[in-house]
Design brief:
homodimer, alpha/beta, 434 Repressor (Amino-terminal Domain), 6-stranded parallel β-sheet, 4-stranded parallel β-sheet, 13 helices, 41% helix, elongated, DNA-binding
Chain lengths: 388, 388
DNA sequence: CTCCGGACAGTAAACGCATTCTATGGGCTG
DNA sequence: CAGCCCATAGAATGCGTTTACTGTCCGGAG
């Protein structure tokens, strides 16, 4: 038999469903009123063994005679004993927790990453702390701190960040403190904090994807493409916009400032701003939405304005979340391996402690590939009448 | 000055961003190599006070002279000290954690509820443990246990459940054990576990909503309505189907077994089964999708079959997640206050311990209202040609 | 001038579990 | 049959905080 094996979650040998033996038999402590939560000591007393032995049957990390084990397990059942993870953590065992901080769990971009994190975490027998910043960097900082207090094995911050000096410094400080405690701050889909700051990170190529997309549009004959959405100042927006511009420049297309309309990552923004732009005197034959959600909003506004996609206007998005496949026409976009990013984030953070402790401590940087996926929302320029 | 005030998360007085004072000065322990994580004792030593005093400035729950406080805070800064939540919890302070268990964070039904839970939790200064069962009751049970081990203040299980006897008993057992430890199991959108089992719960009216929806369809002249989707055996499916049948019966419409096509809650199922049904010889003039996601799938299949909604076939969904408003035509559905359910779930579980401890221990049951929201996906029977 | 109470600060005992040593049999080897 | 080693079980110690209890110092009332 092998000991010391932190198992994945689920399918634990199910407890005997000894139906309604409803908590009668309290006989542990010396307290007079209702039953107190029982401890290892109580279990030990009831089984007639020492606390050490109880601990050992609990953790299966040391041989215990079958007969003894059974007595202990019986006592555990009867007492309804549940180990105290805090005490266990305090005694030196990992808390088996990873934290993830996102803008909003409802947004599919974050939801898929969160799913990846959660799956990989529970595969390693860990639980997952999830927090939502609602876009507020102060909350993000506060959450990182709180997760550090709970001694999370890793804290994963997800999505683009603002380039504020004070904020960045503060986050770097926390990264360093986490590192000093053997934990890791993982940057998931956001730029590094600087050479000296000990972090791990999982990246994907925003600039490159955007370049490919705009290049695709250009190749189809579109010269004036409207860039729509994305919070200005956010690294994600900056990078995608950079790729877009580079493609434009490379093909010698003019860069009209009126064609850049950043704002937000929401469907509502996409619809509203698209409608506004349509009312103005801005010429374009294609729309590059900062992400698929914005694209969905734009598509709606386009449709309501009587414009057909792709016959009248071509449209592309970014991220390849489900809505991209569900739209009609199906959206051409850049596929980002969201769930895989989540998985890798916990892997890169944990591989030091789960594997041989001998290996060099890793400051991992994982870079995941993206690729453009061509669907039905782009048509060659020649076939449509363009937009005034 | 008031002491003892657990504050909401965010906007804590920002630490001085004393930029690059990068962890030089290690002088705490006696260990030779790199700095060790510092403890209250280290801080106390450095500030020249006792650990009790440090604890008091940390928790602001006892008067400390201003000068002393400053020295301590300085020491904390310099050491990069971060309190250990495990030790704190062990010493008797609440772990300030709530757990939520869902099928899948990506599904908007769960995502919105999770968002509500997270928001309400962090409003109370708590962090949120999130787990995904992927539909497996065994994993759910395992997660409840794990959260209990971590001494979560509340464990919220979300969504319909199967009526398996062993599973139910096991869950009841855990609910009882949680209760004995002063925590609460919260049933969110699922039927109670029985009179004797100490749980809190947040419900909404599946049966009633479904009744209203089918009644609406019937009123519009539809007599043969296809019920599509929802895992058979799941309480949610059972209840919605029950409401549907009751309306049918009340209006004297015939209940054709062929018109009931349960299966899953996914878009893919909706599309596939809809397409299959269209190929068969089943007459119907309206479709009642078990939820909005299934409705979206069905809409797609309908469109691909050349059938228009609502001219040829009427369609309704359930839950009122965003896709319902985004579909064209906009989907008539039942609005369920998902996010509010999440908020209420943590409230009902926590109101005992956050408010006056005098009040009667509550076994709360909260019932939230739902209402049908009529949009554009249903038309009176007369206007369309029906379906063979 | 003495005594008392208030404002602070320190001491030490939990909190519940893991783990390191140490002790005790019993089976085996030689 | 003596001496050993292995399999097990117990005793004791430490993990980092909080929190009763105890002081101690000081100013003002009597």
């Amino acid at each position: 038999m092998t000991y010391r094996s932190p198992r994945a979650i689920g399918f634990a040998p199910p407890h005997d469903v000894t139906e309604g033996m409803g908590r009668m038999g309290r006989q542990s402590g010396t307290d007079a009123d209702g039953q107190r939560r029982s401890t290892v000591t109580d279990v030990a007393r009831r089984a007639g063994v020492s606390t050490a032995t109880v601990s050992r049957v609990l953790n299966r990390n040391y041989p215990v005679a079958a007969a003894t084990r059974e007595r202990v397990e019986k006592a555990i059942q009867e007492l309804g004993y549940v180990v105290n993870a805090h005490a266990r953590a305090l005694a030196g065992v990992s808390g088996r927790t990873v934290g993830i901080i996102v803008n909003d769990v409802v947004d599919p971009f974050y939801a898929y990453i969160a799913r990846g994190v959660e799956r990989e975490a529970s595969r390693g027998g860990r639980l997952c702390l999830v927090c939502c910043t609602q876009g507020d960097p102060q909350r993000e900082l506060a959450f990182v701190e709180l997760m550090h207090e709970r001694r999370a094995d890793a804290v994963i911050v997800v999505g683009g960040s603002v380039a504020d000096r004070a904020y960045t410094g503060e986050l770097a400080r926390r990264a360093t403190e986490l590192d000093a405690d053997g934990a890791k701050l993982v940057l998931c889909g956001r730029p590094p904090l600087g050479e000296r700051v000990p972090t791990a990170s999982v990246e994907y190529d925003n600039e490159g994807g955007a370049f490919a997309l705009t290049d695709h549009l250009l190749t189809q004959g579109h010269e004036r493409v409207l860039y729509l959405g994305g919070p200005p100042g956010l690294s994600t927006t900056r990078d995608r916009l950079a790729g877009h511009r580079r493609a434009l420049e490379l093909r010698g297309a003019e860069a009209d400032p009126a064609l850049e309309q950043p704002g937000a990552f929401s469907r509502a923004f996409g619809a509203r701003r698209m409608a506004e732009v349509l009312r103005q005197d801005i010429r374009f034959t294609a729309v590059f939405a900062a992400n698929d959600i914005v694209a969905a909003g734009a598509a709606q506004a386009l449709e309501e304005a009587g414009l057909r996609v792709p016959q009248d206007v071509s449209l592309v998005g970014y991220d390849d979340v489900p809505v991209a496949q569900e739209m009609r026409p199906r959206l051409t976009t850049v596929h980002v391996p969201l769930e895989e990013m989540g998985r890798q984030a916990v892997r890169v953070a944990l591989r030091d402690e789960d594997e041989d402790p001998w290996r060099e401590p890793t400051t991992g940087v994982i870079r995941l590939g993206t690729h453009i996926v061509v669907r039905d929302s782009v048509a060659p320029r020649g076939t449509h009448r363009g937009r005034t």
